[in-house]
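Thread: Modeling a multi-component assembly for a lab meeting

Hi all, long-time lurker, first post. My supervisor asked me to bring a structural picture of a complex we are working on to next week's group meeting, and I have zero experience with this. I have the sequence lines for every component (384 residues in total). Could someone generate the structure of the whole assembly? Inputs are pasted exactly as I received them:
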Amino acid sequence: MYELFFSRIAEKIELTEEEKALFITYLTPKKLRRKQYLLQEGDVCKSVAFVEKGALRSYTIDNKGTEHIIQFALEGWWISDMYSMLTGEPSNQNIDAIEDSELVIISRNAQEELMERIPKYERYNRLLLQNAYIAAQRRINYMASLTTEEKYTKLVSTYPDIVQRVPQHMIASYLGLTPETLSRARKQMTRK
Amino acid sequence: MYELFFSRIAEKIELTEEEKALFITYLTPKKLRRKQYLLQEGDVCKSVAFVEKGALRSYTIDNKGTEHIIQFALEGWWISDMYSMLTGEPSNQNIDAIEDSELVIISRNAQEELMERIPKYERYNRLLLQNAYIAAQRRINYMASLTTEEKYTKLVSTYPDIVQRVPQHMIASYLGLTPETLSRARKQMTRK
DNA sequence: CGGGCCTTTGACTGGTTTCAACTTCTGTGG
DNA sequence: CCACAGAAGTTGAAACCAGTCAAAGGCCCG
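Re: Modeling a multi-component assembly
Sure thing. I ran the full set together rather than chain by chain. Output:
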């Protein structure tokens, strides 16, 4: 249990056995069925989730009823609505499972305490956020500068596992396209 | 000197006088003229910059020669190419001054050492990154879900100072629009 | 005062969205 | 295990919005 969780942490910081034991007391496992919500719009987000197994997504729904996918999270990824968690305001996002999933949950308080008691974990989180921020900036850049085909190609090369496991209309949503447009772009590409 | 710098840090962590003194030994002031580069595409980014005064922007240039603004930084903001700094690879971004500016520079090494010696500063950076990441995610969401007019309106309400001080074609670039489209959108809006 | 940059405006083009119909796939219950 | 309903993906046609190209006007800076 928590194998992937600790192996991912070990990539960035070294925990002693005692620290690991302490860590475990703060963790809660959780299983989610496909299509089940982890967070619903209107709820306050009170934890972060690490994906041990499965696949989730976070998304918003605009006033026309269209979903906009903010993030996917496969094995080894973290997911939550940090804004809601930080401010205590109700979330405008939904998070649900794309496949049956197994998660490791850390509550907001647990997160704070862990960082207090194990400063290395604060470092871990800083590094994580740094990577997430860099990736987000890059995504913004791609959204503004790439053509439809290029966006899709870039996604395939960067996250092939996502493209394989996630339904195409969600990929389209993630890329800021309609399902029809993505379908047509893919067709175009196979002609080459 | 460094007034704004330390007052912004004080909003998130408390530094003792000794710590502050130590801090100062790691800081380098730098002035930039309007249009002067802080970082050019192809260079490796070796520091982060805090804006004491003035306004900067970071941007990429795509293969058609079009600029895409990634970020603005006014007084109190940080700016750098974190990816290049982290990896040591040449940057694909440019950073230059929109107005004559005064910066506080912290080199990559200084940054690391400061976080080692003053763990609170690591916390500060985590909090900073958290906010930056949240803002980036929100921007992605807005890019995908808002109309042209809504994007502009949102920017005006969120960062009125940016809209006032930055040329309109840069605002357009930041929003992922052409200058013409933004001009027309603004015209539409004044009719209401 | 002049030149260049920025913004605006117009006409045209092209890519994406929208709406609708049809096909294919999937998972759920009989 | 099959059948069938709903979801997902594909395709077509029409409408629309933003991009492109070109030109004119305005404004700031040297």
